[in-house]
Amino acid sequence: MAQKNRLPDGGRIDRTKPVRFQFNGKRYDGFSGDTLAAALLANGVSLVGRSFKYHRPRGIMTAGSEEPNALVQLGTGARTEPNIRATQAELFDGLSADSQNCWPSVGFDIGAINSVMSKYLPAGFYYKTFMWPASLWMTYEHVIRNAAGLGKGPTESDPDRYAQHHTACDVLIVGGGPSGLAAALAAGRSGARTILVDEQSEFGGWLLTDDTEIDGMAPTDWVANTVKELAGLDNVTLLPRTTVSAYFDHNFLTAAQRVTDHLGPQENTKTPRQRFWKIRAKQVVLAQGSLERPIVFADNDRPGVMLAGALRTYINRYGVLPGREIVVFTNNDSAYRTAIDAKNAGAVVHLVDLRPDPDNPVVHQARQAGIQIHEGSAVVGIKGAKSIHGVEIAPLSEDGKSLAGPTFVVSASLVAMSSGWNPSVHLFSQSRGKLRFDDALTTFVPDHTPQKTRSAGACNGTFTLAGCLAEGMEAGAAAAKDAGFDSAIAGPSHVVKEDAPGSMRQVWTVPTVHPLGKGTRKHFLDHQNDVTAADVHLAAREGYLSVEHLKRYTTTGMGTDQGKTSNVNALAIMSEIRSASIPEVGTTTFRPPYTPTTYGAMAGQGVQELFEQYRGTAMHDWHVNNGAVFEDVGDWKRARYYPKPGEDMDEAVRRECKQARETVGIMDASTLGKIDIQGPDAAKLLNMVYTNAWSALKPGRARYGLMLNEHGMVFDDGVTTCIGENHYHMTTTTGGAARVLNWLEEWLQTEWPDMEVYCTSVTEEWAVATLSGPKAREVMEAVAPKMALDPQTFPFMAMQEGEVAGLPARVFRISFTGDLSYEINVPARYGMALWEALMEAGRPHGIVPYGTETMHVLRAEKGFIIVGQDSDGTVTPYDLDMDWIVSKKKDDFLGKRSLTRTDTARPGRKQLVGLLTEDPNFVLPEGAHLVKEVKPKPPMDTIGHVTSSYFSPNAGRSIALALVKDGLNLKGSSFQVPLMSGHVETVTITDTIFFDKEGERARG
Amino acid sequence: MSKYSIFSLIRNAGSYHENWQRAWRSPDPQPEYEVVIIGGGGHGLATAYYLAKECGIRRVAVIEKGWLGGGNTGRNTTIVRSNYLLDESAGIYEHSVKLWEGLSQELNFNVMFSQRGLLHLAHNVHDMQEIGRRGNAIWLNGIDSEFLTPEQVKEMVPLMNINGRYPVLGALLQRRGGTARHDAVAWGYARAADALGVDIIQNCEVTGFDIKNGVVQGVRTTRGDIKAKRVGVVTAGHSTVMADMAGFRMPLESLPLQAMVSEPIKPCIDTVIMSNAVHVYVSQSDKGELVVGAGTDAYISYAQRGGFDMMEHIMGPLVELFPFTSRLRMLRQWGGIVDVTVDRSPILSKTPVEGLYFNCGWGTGGFKCTPGSGHVFAHSIANGEMHPIAAPFSIDRFNTGALIDEAAAAAVAH
After folding, report:
1. Which of B127, B131, B140 to mutate to test the interface with A (most CBs of A within 10 A)?
2. Does the keyword field hold Oxidoreductase (chain A) (predicted)?
């Protein structure tokens, strides 16, 4: 299909590379180097999308990342992406895009009923209605939700890969226009590690649009020379297609690089689709340029109304003249260049200038070019809805509030507007920089920032090319110098012939034939969210005067463009209403990111199989190969049980429990937290963090300890062993390992810096196999012939170092099952060898591997607690009936003071007890509650809850542990446990030991 | 106050919306009030409203140093629920949810309270034990509570990945939980309170207290001294600063909490989903944005912004639980300052200064309790005795040890 608006020559597109694409199912041609927006305009497509609220037909307003209107659904299937700005999407062969937020089509959209009803739907209308009847709100909301949203999210997993990249540099330069390029030259030549970032596909910025010569060269030639020089410097990194999205403290900035988006879907490649950069810069130069302001005039949203600078870009950079009859509407000189270029490209151009007597050289040039200039006039209306076919013009009164003469209509299909330029202060503001309002420029400019950053060029309010080049050079040199490159110099200044910018005339709301808000014409501020000047008046009338209230009430600036084209206009209109200056009205906080950033890129490689990789023990593969079912404990995978063919969990656990008590069981206990503690103050530390006394513990002996937090509540437990003088081996719960180490370090570093003691996590240094059961010693004898295993030499709660299965080992005689147990620790690399040797040696004795579930049952049979299951951070040692472990003699330990607080020391707290169900086969669900009295329905007063509950094959019945108010005094009493299912179980409170009450077995 | 309704909208459309009244006046402060509330966030405005509405105290001023709802009221992820473990928590949060139900009608301002259900996911045995205990506790407190199987979860949220690194083993559902429109809550209370005669004074910063013999006499502000025998401080992240002015310390730490939204998309997630093990929570706003949050930043700060590492730590979990979000884009990220107590439960309390009441320490979960907190705090100030629902949340508990340690006990993020 012919590209009817494509100029015969010119532009930076590659006419030798035609590109085919689809929009709304229709096929079009464009060229390599086009954006989707440029190609659509080239093909005469002006209607691109529909707005958020009123579903007004919309076209293309800008040529960059500030676009509020031309959002499309790009691609299909798993790779579909909503809300892509057509002005940024680079064209590739096979690109397919669709209009969004419209049905059945962008041309005929049922949702446009909202536009007809718009009279009833002013800002914030939804706060005033949909309240009756109350029961219908969810129905109303359903409709609202479906009407809202823009594009559609994908429903499948993302097939593409992303990467993160960390880097540091001396000078980071954001923006590759004239200022940024000049800064990069100065910084790069000094030898400083320089990164130059630009969001567009090529460097140059405004120089790709403008024709002002630099040093006698065409600007694009200057850009090419500069980029060539920079590319030749090893210390300079050039990052086009990269958006610096956020500016954090300490000069830490993040940037999203679009690596393959411009190429289309990439199959079978390892190249990431986007790369997320995390940059720590010694110095930053912000050179992001400026964004043109739209004029707020009647029906300024019609497809075909665009920013004057954008039109110039389409003409000069893309070789597209989107209309043959053009009205340029401006309050400043810059749009005259657009008018002249449009005229030279063959358009009939009318210039409508708000200023009554513009007379700068460019005005004369325009006149000489044959452009008709309507001075002191304004565009007051647009003919046409889905496209423009005429423009209404009228002279303005002196105060700009009313029309000073009759309107007349000129034939036109395009309006290019300019109300001046706003420096891009977004990143500066994110750096915690303070803004200053510049009255001459009528906009905010950077003032000061606590960070090591400089603004240069248009983003600093400098709007001449010579000024941008000079400021860029100076900023680049100064940044390099401050980064330690003393030789950095600003370099020779550039010769640029240009006119000084002329005056501006601000008319923040251009009047039309009817008063604002009356009649059908609308003055849009925020095009995407359909916020009009009348909405600002309404907000002010209702008292939403603060700029944040204005934003939140009207939703101005809250679209996907975050108000890049609307914020200053909204502030200005509010300031007029309030008769306050714009800085008095204030500005909202600029929040990251600068433009929306892909979640996948921020997540980087840390997704799917690389999302929180699991930790496995040295014996993990054995468990896998022997059919273990695993459970997640923290990030560990632990073997939960080892079902035999046909067994379910209950059956497997019953078998493991029985056999472990009858012969010998083996468990992988490697995940238990292990901390190596050394130093002259090691015992002192233990005395402070545990409730019991540690001073007397001899080498080779182990002791069980409870740790309390500051509130006196049990926080972790474990066995710690004295390895030698000033040397201890602490064990913690699996889940608590990191927490305990942090706890020790926090106290050592903040409160006890005088203690000389060093804590090292050695969890992963040791592989641990636990042998437990009556035959454990026989197995040990087989694998550790050189060890003294008789109970006299190697008693309960002792440790000895030696050889097990020919491996260097520490063997601990400690027990979590209540049976004779050996916890055998070997360096992790020998873990599998140890395990296999133990299995081999155990086979004659009927050894059974058991998992965490059996461990839980066996320990519950003995009433051993699991911190975090039987205690919950609100439980003291006394609540656990473990008074014996709280030293009465020690002066202090963590939590001691709190134990004496009135509530903590009061009787009747929830205490740990055993429970026996009336039906011995009924296993209570964990988390079920005991009540004082069962009622037909809740609420019911509870007195406690079940913390652990199992069927115990060794006790031959179900057993449970529970925390019950005053439970230690209620032994023998019966209570009821109502369940959601309706079942009520009667339970009797008992002590917590259900097996081997005398505790002889562990001593072996 | 002229009533909002579909009819008033139609009527006002006829006069080009030029006759709408101000939602609240902008009065100058009077020299004296019966009660001064410091802090024009949701909790403070709600307190003023209930003082005027239910306690017969209309000479009330709300003093706000910035703009109404500019603190955590306008920065949170708008989740409302009452599925708390401990009786004290269940008491106040359920009281609040009951007030939420009907709040739009009560205030004649649509706060868009949407009971679209709230899921707490369980990803491991420990999580299952936790929801087991909490689900039963909630149920026995007479609050709605349901256990779901992974299949039921998948049915409710088809786009969720239930077989990821930490598979979904079950979930606890509160159907009456959901979200509300945060700004509207502040505005609705402000408008309704104003209509009852409450003076709402914005851009007025409290610079000190007038305290004689341990009794509060009034407050000093940037707009002059204001006398009041009863003063309620409801200043969230700045409560420590206010307590310092009054001469005592509040057991609080102020931490940054971040949240973020995606670009708006068509409806894809209908419920609120919270996962501790994967560590992210997500809902979709009526506008279509995915609202995403997780834990607080690690350091203490009064800055209303956070660091990147927390944002990054939200992304992996988000994409893990909802793989389709990988191609969506983050639109905006922001931070608030949350005031956190050691037991992560709030403080509603008298103080060492007679007549001076504090309502703070809501940490990361105060929004949901806006109506309930305001309601019981108003009654407490009016009666000079803490309301029974508020009583357990006294600062005395940090001395007695009667902590309401929801964090330790339930280990669930607010």
Report:
1. B140
2. yes
Taking a C-beta distance cutoff of 8 angstroms, is the pair A443, A332 a contact? no
**Is B268 close to A155, i.e. CB distance below 8 A?**
yes
Kindly list the residues from chain A whose CB atom is less than 8 angstroms away from the CB atom of residue B311. Answer: 602
Question: What number is the ipTM of this complex?
Answer: 0.97
Burial category of A414 from C-beta neighbours within 10 Å (exposed 0-12, middle 13-18, buried 19 and up)? buried
List, for residues B213-234, the tens digit of each pLDDT value: 999 999 999 999 999 999 999 9
Question: What are the CA-CA distances from residue A919 to residues A437, A909, A935, B116 (Å)?
Answer: 79, 28, 21, 40
In this complex, which of A548, A904, A928 lies closest to B136 when CB atoms are compared? Answer: A928
What pLDDT shows up at residue A2? 83
pLDDT at A500: 86
> Distance between CA atoms of B243 and A615, rounded to whole angstroms?
46
The CA–CA distances, whole Å, from B25 to A253, A832, A849, A880 equal 43, 76, 75, 59
CATH for B29-78+182-252+343-410? Answer: 3.50.50.60
**Which residue from B23, B145, B264 is facing A149, i.e. has the nearest CB?**
B264
Which residue in chain B is spatially nearest to A607 when comparing CA positions? B316
Contact A517 B18 (CB under 8 A): yes
Q: What is the pLDDT of residue B409?
A: 66
- Across the interface, which of A158, A614, A905 has its CB nearest the CB of B327? A158
Nearest one of A925, A123, A229, A897 to A529, comparing CA atoms: A123
Q: Best mutation site among B12, B94, B199, B266 for testing chain A: the one with the most A CBs within 10 Å?
A: B266
Q: Which residues of B touch A873 (CB under 8 A)?
A: 405, 407-409, 411
CB contact under 8 A, B286 and A148: yes
Q: Which two tokens stand for residue A262?
A: 């411009």
* Interface contact flag, B409 A600, Cβ < 8 Å: no
Tokens of A507: 């008319």
A740-771 pLDDT, tens digit per residue, is: 999 999 999 999 999 999 999 999 999 999 99
Report the pLDDT value the prediction gives residue B411, as an integer from 0 to 100.
Answer: 52
Mean pLDDT, contiguous 10-residue spans, chain A (1004 residues): 90 97 97 98 96 95 97 96 98 97 92 92 95 93 94 96 97 98 98 98 97 96 98 98 97 98 92 97 98 98 98 98 98 97 98 95 96 97 96 97 97 98 97 94 94 98 96 98 96 90 94 92 96 97 96 96 95 96 87 96 93 96 98 95 97 98 98 98 98 96 96 96 97 95 97 98 98 97 96 96 98 96 98 98 98 98 96 95 96 96 96 98 98 95 97 97 98 97 97 93 81
Q: Read off the tokens for B375.
A: 């309601």
Name the residue facing A129 among B102, B110, B334 (closest C-beta): B110
Domains of chain A: 162-290+423-482 (3.50.50.60), 294-419 (3.50.50.60), 514-591 (1.10.10.1100), 621-671+765-859 (3.30.1360.120), 673-764 (3.30.70.1400), 906-1004 (2.40.30.110)
- State the pTM of this model: 0.96
Q: Where are the domains of chain B?
A: 29-78+182-252+343-410, 116-178+253-341
Picking from B9, B134, B139, the nearest residue to A980 by CB comes out as: B139
CATH class, B116-178+253-341 region: alpha beta
Residue A813 phi, psi (nearest 5)? -95, 75
B9 vs A contacts (CB less than 8 Å) = 120, 125, 128-129
- The 10s digit of each residue's pLDDT in B371-388 is 999 999 999 999 999 999
Q: Which residues of B touch A905 (CB under 8 A)?
A: 401
What is the crossing angle of helices A533-541 and A567-578, to 10°?
40
- Closest by CA to A593, choosing from B330, B309, B297, is B330
Which of B108, B159, B183, B329 to mutate to probe the A interface, most A CBs <10 Å? B329
Single-letter amino acid, residue A449: T
